[in-house]
Predict the 3D structure of the following.
Amino acid sequence: MFIYEKSITGKADIQKIWDFYSDVTKWGLWDKSVKSVQLSGPFSAGTQGIMEIADGSSLPIVLTECSDKKSFTTKSELGPIAVTFGHLLKEDENGVTITHTVTIEGGEENQMKGMGKGITAGIPECLEKLLSA
């Protein structure tokens, strides 16, 4: 299993960040690895879709959890390997904390570690873009 978590905290408008999350046509604005995302329904748990990656490949995704202005989780199944992306927002007196997580399960250890390293490389930049939204 591969697990990654990265957070950033700063002054931000939680509604603006949520707008970037919930409008999948904007995902490429904060994540340069995403070319496009299409969902088969609303931005809510159970909705399936396709994410086209900047390299031209496409991944099936499903929103497995969604809580307005708080969090959402997507899961992609690639044969025996499952990749889960978590997105969490928390607001307090210090501002907004944005946390992104990636969990990879079902593959050979080195394969999952290699995938994870590639998938997570851009997360710090994604967090910076969201915080400055």
